[in-house]
Amino acid sequence: MSIDALDITILGPAFCAGLLVLATHVPMGQQVLARGIVFIDLAIAQIAGLGVIAADAMGWEPQGYAVQIAAVSAALLGALLLTFTERKWPDIQEALIGVLFVLAACAGLLLLANNPHGGEHLKDLLVGQILWVSFSQLIPVTILTVIILTLWFSARTRLGAVGFYVMFAIVVTASVQLVGVYLVFASLIIPALASRFFPAKRRLVIGYTIGLFGYALGLVLSALIDLPSGAVVVWSLALFGIGFTYLAKYSRSNASVTLMQNRLDTGSNTQ
C-alpha cells in the first residue's frame, strides 16, 4: 500500500484517539513514575477490561451504557482498593499492584474459557482495535478528557490520593476501550521515562512530542506493512523514547563540556 492509498477516514480517527489518550496519560505518567507505582496502569486497565468481559459474559450490548458502567465500576473499585493499600502498606504497594493485575487477568481468562470467541476478545482487549475507532466514539472521550485535564492542572494537589486514583481509573477505563491495554501502558510510561532526563519545565512538552511522533509513525507504518496497529505504535513509541533519551544525554554531555571549557577559559584569563 502506498502513502497516497492510506485512508484518512481510518487513520484520522485513530490518530485523534491516540492524541486523546496522550493528553491525559503523559502528565499522569510522570506522576506515576514519581510515585513509584509504574504498573498501576496495567492493573487498572486489566480490571476495567475484566468489567467489560463480565458484562459481555452476561450478554450485555458491547457498546451499550451497561458495559461502560460495568467497566468504570470495576476500575473504581480497583482504584479504591489501591488507595487503601497505599495507606495501609505503602512499602509493598508496587507488589500489591502486580498481584491485583495477575488476579484480574486470570479472572478474565476464566470468564472467557468457555467462550468460542474468547481468544479474539482477549486480543482486542490487550492490543486494541484503534483503526476501528470512529469520530463519534471520540466525542464523549473528548469531553471526559477536557474535564480530567481541568481538574488535573487546577486541583490535583487538593484532591489527594483518592482523587488521583479515581481520575486515573476513569481515564484508563475510557482509554483501554479505544486503544487496548498495551498501548495505554506504553502511552503512560514511555514518554514519562524518556522525558525524565530533560529539565523539569520541559518534560511535559517532550512527553507529548514523543507520543505524537510515536502514534503518527506507528499508525502509518502499520497501514503500510499491514501489521497490528497497536503493537506497531508501541514499538514506535519505544524507538522515539530511546531517541529522545540519547538526545537528552548528548545535550547534557555537550553542556558539561561547554561549562568546563568556559571555566578553563575564565581561569586562564584571570591568570
Question: How would you portray this structure in words?
Answer:
Helices cover 83% and strands 0% of the residues. The chain has 271 residues and is mainly α. It has one domain: ABC transporter involved in vitamin B12 uptake, BtuC (Orthogonal Bundle). Helix 1 packs across helix 7 (181-195), helix 2 packs parallel to helix 4 (93-112) and helix 2 (40-57) runs antiparallel to helix 7. The N and C termini lie far apart (67 Å).
In short:
By secondary structure, the chain is mainly α. 83% of the residues lie in helices and 0% in strands. It has a single domain, classed as ABC transporter involved in vitamin B12 uptake, BtuC (Orthogonal Bundle).
Write a concise keyword list for the protein shown above:
271 residues, mainly alpha, ABC transporter involved in vitamin B12 uptake, BtuC, 9 helices, 83% helix, 0% strand, globular, disordered N terminus
Integer tally of domains:
1
CA radius of gyration: 21 Å
In the CATH scheme, the class would be: Mainly Alpha
Beta-strand residue percentage? under 5%
Distance N to C terminus: 67 Å
Any idea what the CATH architecture is?
Orthogonal Bundle
What are the segments in which pLDDT stays under 50 over at least 5 consecutive residues? 1-5
**What structural category arises from helix and sheet content?**
mainly alpha
Helical proportion?
Answer: over 70%
Largest sheet, in brief, is: none
Number of strands: 0
Succession of helices and strands: HHHHHHHHH
CATH superfamily: ABC transporter involved in vitamin B12 uptake, BtuC
Mean of residue pLDDT values: 82
Give the number of helices: 9
